[in-house]
Structure formats: C-alpha cells, structure tokens
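Tutorial sheet, problem 5. The two components below are modelled jointly, 653 residues in total.
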Amino acid sequence: MTKAGDWQSYQRVLLPPVRNLHHLDAYRAQGGYDILRTIFNDWKPEDVTQCVKKSGLRGRGGAGFPTGLKWSFMPPANPAVPRFLCCNADESEPGTFKDRQLMEFNPHLIFEGILIACFAMSMKACYLYVRGEFSSWITLLERELACAYDANLVGTGMLGTNVNMDIILHKGAGAYICGEETSLMESLEGKRAYPRIKPPFPAQQGIWGYPTTINNVETLACVPLILDRGADWFAGVGAQTHPGPILYGISGHVNRPGVYEYPTGMLITDLLEIAGSMRGGKKLKALVPGGASVPVLRADMIEGVTMDVESLRAAGSMMGTAGMLFLDEDTDMVAFLRRVARFYHHESCGQCTPCREGTGWMENLITRIDDGEGNLRDLDLLLDLCDQMEGRTVCALADAAAWPVRNTIKRFRNDFEKRCRPAVWAGVA
Amino acid sequence: MADFIKNPVVDLPDPDPAPHFSEEELVFTANEKAEIARRIAQYPTSDGAVMWTLWLAQDKFGFLPPEVLRLVAQELERPYAQVYGVATFYTQYYKEKKGTHVLDVCTCFSCQFCGGYDILDYLERKLGIKRGQTTPCERFTLQEVECLGACGSAPMLQVSNGPYAHNLTPEKIDVLLATLENGEPLPFVSLTLPQDEDQMQGNRRSDAEAVEAYQVPPVAKLTS
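Model answer (structure tokens):
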C-alpha cells in the first residue's frame, strides 16, 4: 500500500465526472454553494481558518506552504482598513497546465473557495489574476462569474445577507514573474511587476499597502471540499504530511499526457503507468516532477519516490506544481538545459543584478556548450555562477534558475562533458 | 562563434518617433470611456486599470506606439512614464505594428521535446519569414514564445493573444493558415481530460465549440 492508499478506486472531487459542471445549474445540482450558505449562516470566520489548518492543506502553487497558517497571518479585522484576497491564476511555470483545466471545467468551485476564504479572513474583495495568454478562459470565467452575480451568490447583499463581496478578474499580459506573490501585487497595482522585498509580508502590507493574502487557484478550489466533507476527510486523502486531492499535469514523451486527478503521495512509477508509460516503448531518462524550477531527477532516482513534499525532498527534488515532464532516453539534456536557461533569461524581470546578468550568462555558457565550443571548465563556472545567484535576489526566480542548472549538470555530467572540448592535458583542465 | 560575442550591443528605442496615428484618431469613444471608468471603479486607485486600459487600447489600435500610451496615461490621469513602463514590461503588449494574425509558437521545454521547434521551422519556411518577423503582406507575424501553459497538448501555438491550437502537425498548420487567410474565426478548443474519456466517454462540456483529446506527442527532431 502506498501513501496514496487505494488510488485505483479514487473518486475525483476537484473535477468530478459530471457533465457541464461549469454551468451554475449543474454545479448547484451537485450541492454546490450549499456549504457557502451554511458557513455564512452558522460559522465563525476563525472556525473556518481552524478547519483549513486542521485539514493540512498545503498551497498548490509551488511552494507548498500550509494554507491555514497563511490565513492566520492576517491581522485582526478592522472595518476601517480594507483587506484583499488575490487568487493566483498566473500559471506560467513550464510543465504546468492544471489550473487552466480547472478554470475551464469547474469555475464555480474556484469562486466558492474564494468566497469562503474571503469570509474566513473578513475580506470584501478578491482579485482573480489570470495570465493574459488565457484570454479564452478569462471569457469563460467572466460568463460564469456573471451567472453567479445574477444568482446573488456574490456581490451586494449576497445570499440574502447584508454581506458584500466582489470577485474581480484581472488580466495579466505575459510575464512569468507575475506568478510570484509580491510581483503579482505590483502588477495588480498597474506597475512593472518587480517583486517586493519581504518583510513586510503581504499579510501586513499587500496591494495598495493593505493586508492581503494570495492563494493559488487549486488551493482555493480545495477549500469548499474541506469545509463540506470535513478536515478529517481531507487529511485522510493521500500522503499524511501533504494531504488532499491534487491535479497532476503530465507531459512529455508519454503515451497519454494530460491532467489527472489523484491523491497526493502517488508513486511516480504508478503515475507513469497511468499516463500510458513511455512513448514507443522507450526507456525513461529524466523526470521534472514539478515544473521548470525544480531539480530534475534521473530515471534511476525515482524508484519508490512518491509525489509529496517529504518524499521528493528526500529524493533530491521538490513538489513544485506537480506538472510532471517525462523525458525518454533520446533526450539531449544539454538542449534541455539550454532551453530552461533561455526561459529564465527571458523571464528575469531585471530588478536584481545577480539574476538579470546571471541568467544571461547562464544561457550564454550553456549555448556555447551546446554549440560544441564549450570547455570543461565552463561546467564548473556554471556551478559557481549558481552559487553566486542563489539567495542573493529579492525573489526566488534566481534560485529557481540556479536549481535546475546545478542539478542537471550534477546528475547528467557525462552528457555535458561529452559536448565540451576535451582538455589539452587530461586531468588538468 | 556564438551570437552573444558577435552582437553584444542592444539597440535603444527612438526617443521621439514619428506618430502612427493622427490627433483625430487618438480618442476613446464614449463606450470605451465608460468601460475604462468601470474598470477604474474596481480598484482603490486608477493604477489598477492601467493593464485593462492598455488591453483595450491594443484591441482598438492594434499596437501601442508612444502616442497611444500618452492617450492611456491621460485617460487614467497617471504619469506617461508609468504607462510606458508597464507597456514595455509585458510581452503581450505590442510596441510595434504586427501582422493581422500573430502566431505565437510555444517552444518551452515540453513543446521543445515534442516538436515545437519543428513547427516553428515549418512555419518559417511556409511563410518565408524568420521568427520575430512579419510577412510583407502584413498578414502574419511569427513569434517564438515562452510556456503558454498547455504542455500536455504540445506542440501548440496561440493566435493573436486569443485561441490556442493544440497537438500541431504540419497538416494542421496548413488548415489553420487557410482558415485565418479566409478570415474565419478559430474555435475555442476544449481538451478532454484522459480520465473523462474513460469515465464520461468524451468531453464534459456540451457547449464546447471544438473538442480535442490529449495525444501522443509526435517524435521530435531537435533544431534550435
């Protein structure tokens, strides 16, 4: 028995098999928005936060921070000071495409989660920040949100109470950095999305200086399920230290890529089998378990590793966003790393020098190796560059650029050395 | 020798370019002003509406030269420098004139290893332009972009910041280009989840304009 328990008979809850669930009628026929009404009538805000805390829900956006704890960082409610929730749907991490499908197939679950979170933290408004590339999905969300407003589930005097809450859609315009929470706040304020230095944390000074909490779409979608089915139910799904249902976005050289919903703590080997195993009967070479920023795993490192924070940390990687990229034996790891470095070079916002310059030199060095003009010492220069970048910038983008570079070179050093020019004197260069 | 050694210098933009739009063209209609006012009301200050207004201006004018940015700044009563800064920070705001249809081909790693560069290469040869360029007839602009968040259906592209085209093949590209040349709109394609295929025999949205499944990625040939 794995940490995921009896996953073969797992019943989906984030994306349950219900036709047209994105329609308000279909969603309400499933009992949607019932728990919201119950909470508004009978619950105290602090009990909601307590329940989320007890469920053990961790953020699904990449960092895996406990959600209930994050909510409890909010200062006591003061009617004179507005406070905001931000729902982060700026899904730009390469390899991640789960939030898009959640917005497409179950938007009302997201809205309900947002409203419950607003109730728990006494907020009046939530900004739903969707990346600009998802303009088709923004249209879909707008349509469903209008239905929710018409049904008085959100807005002025919602649910027949005297409470007013608003959900406001904000359209990004194509910047990976906006997925970083402080950068997202700057972007909402209509500025260049330069991350802010922390502290002050968003809970103290967020958008326009007001207390703010930022959660991922999938995290907020879990909230109604927790309140509806109980914290104990949620805590019992999947891995003990990182529980709950989760969307695995599987891409790369597999026969059946796509978004799969299963409990956390699934064996990577099971997930590979679910996704139809490797294309053309090839062998697995490398796996990126959670988006571009997390260290890549070699095929021989995944035996017995499960998809949860603890197990992946022990294996030398991270959970990230659970956007898994499987690569087969023909994959050129130098080309892979060159593309990853190019991504970070393009997406570095340019605020901090180590990142702005470092990501550029990283790309240059790897390009030189990929072109067959690299020297063996360039590999160590790259590793040194990683050390110079990591932890020396305002946000974690430099770290996120350094981790894959360091670990790909470490774990596939042979592939890189083969591409470098041989040393003149063996053992000296 | 690698490119970065040969061409290290970055060209700076012209500080005072000739305007593309006349004074008469540079106005927002009453409807557009109402839309902008509605957006401003959603935020504590008018700063929040900068991005929405830039989107509106781009839809209206096609791209955002300095005079349009000035108009946006005036409308929102924000400094020109702020609006210029925002417009130049985000890649989806076009600073120069593009073709009628902008083809954004994703080449980030999932697409890279599933043939994204092959698709880009095919489009380059088919349109006779390089990435970043516009065809002489000004109908198509071809761009290489970072992850568009559709890794499972790689290789894929986005058309003019709008609809996605998934699971691309050369044949599919031909059809896509013909559709665009005929001026027909592209449908919104809903991708069916693999688990829905098993449990619901297909896509769950009955109102989807077009439906596709996630497919085995084609065998990629690496070029870059």
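Marking note: The first strand of chain B starts at residue 101 and ends at 106. Full credit if you identified this.
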